[in-house]
Amino acid sequence: MRTVVFGSQGQLGRDLCPVLPGEVIPLARVDVDLTDSKAIADRLASLKPNLVVNCAAYNFVDKAESEPQNAFAVNVWATRTLAQACQSLGIKFVHFSTDYVFGLDETRQEPWTETDSPGPVSVYGLSKLAGEYLVRSICPDHLVIRTCGLYGVWGTGGKGGNFVETMLKLAAQGKPLRVVDDQRCTPSYTADVAEATAKLIETGAQGLFHITNAGDCSWYELAKEIFRLAGVNPQLAPISSMEFNSIARRPAYSVLSTLKVVALGVARLRPWSEAIRAYLERRGNES
Ligand SMILES: NC(=O)c1ccc[n+]([C@@H]2O[C@H](COP(=O)([O-])OP(=O)(O)OC[C@H]3O[C@@H](n4cnc5c(N)ncnc54)[C@H](OP(=O)(O)O)[C@@H]3O)[C@@H](O)[C@H]2O)c1
């Protein structure tokens, strides 16, 4: 088994590469820029992997509103190129997507399943949804895995850090914090998502799956739990999305049901608060 992982230097890519079986070839932007379709095709034709995993993405949710062409270059067109190359070379393609493909239905209060119709409310969400559809229509031997609120010890590539680190940094600066309390999702630890992804690949399944930690919370509740577990006590107040006034709109409720992947025999991931605790411990040990 030979696997090529694109986006290997991102937070999910870094946790996924070590848990995949067989020979794993990690590729970063310096190896292949995904906006270069010839480079993708040439590299896959020469490496001849059995499996391609794409952890790369344009993840700047707010910036995407003013530069949709950059978001689409990676999340749509590069994804199409990867799907086409995998299809023509007979390679299984594993691609990641997001809970931000949902949000249009503002009344929703129960976890979204894989059969629910998406409705993105941002350029980023739209670009990721278009990427999903291209993979599903071009390359029959695929897994599209939607996940949510990722944080990992490596931090996101371009953005640097992650929500947990941002909260701890701001708390250390002694600033009063105001965090959004009307957006619910499931913060998910990249190490846990990586383990479950490896198990899902092992089952040989194809199709669309949701993988997140268990339970759900608002960003405010997440911040509160991070501070409780880290033993710090900053001034923290809940605010609404309207008050926060971010450039891109975000879903009010984007909790993903993981029943489909669990039914395949992939163990339900631990609750999000236990995962935060594990993250804080690992971070402490590695610093
Ligand atoms: N982060 C989240 O909260 C979240 C939530 C739900 C779903 N997801 C999805 O989960 C997957 C993994 O996300 P992540 O948080 O691990 O992302 P990440 O840490 O931001 O990593 C993304 C990687 O993609 C690379 N990349 C971007 N443009 C590229 C290009 N043109 N050519 C080659 N590489 C390029 C980046 O390289 P550079 O470092 O060189 O820019 C970076 O290493 C993505 O599909 C994302 O959409 C993420």
Radius of gyration, CA atoms, in whole angstroms = 18 Å
Largest sheet: 6 strands, parallel
Quickly name the level 1 CATH class: Alpha Beta
What is the CATH third-level topology name? Rossmann fold
Strand residue percentage: 15-25%
How would you state the average pLDDT, rounded? Answer: 96
- N-to-C order of helices and strands: EHEHEHEHEEHEEEHEEHEHHH
Flag low-confidence runs: none
| Number of structural units classed as domains | 1
Name the shape in a single word.
Answer: globular
CATH architecture annotation name: 3-Layer(aba) Sandwich
Total helical elements: 10
What binds here, in terms of ligands, is: NADP nicotinamide-adenine-dinucleotide phosphate
Percent range for helical residues? 40-55%
Number of strands: 12
Strand order of the largest sheet: 2-1-3-4-5-10
Features:
globular; 287 residues; 40% helix; 12 strands; two-stranded parallel sheet; six-stranded parallel sheet; 10 helices; Rossmann fold; 16% strand; binds NADP nicotinamide-adenine-dinucleotide phosphate; alpha/beta
Describe the structure.
The protein has 287 residues and is an alpha/beta fold. The protein has a single domain (2-161, 187-214, 255-270), classed as Rossmann fold (3-Layer(aba) Sandwich), CATH 3.40.50. Helix content is 40%, strand content 16%. The chain has helices at residues 11-16, 37-47, 68-89, 123-138, 163-172, 190-203, 219-230, 241-244, 259-263, 272-286; strands at residues 2-6, 23-27, 51-54, 92-98, 142-147, 150-151, 177-180, 184-185, 188-189, 207-210, 217-218, 236-239. The strands form four sheets. A six-stranded parallel β-sheet has the order 2-1-3-4-5-10, sandwiched between helices. A two-stranded parallel sheet has the order 6-9. Strands 7-12 form a two-stranded parallel ribbon. α2 runs parallel beside α3 and α7 (219-230) packs across α10 (272-286). The protein is globular and about 55 Å long. The mean pLDDT is 96. It binds NADP nicotinamide-adenine-dinucleotide phosphate (NAP).
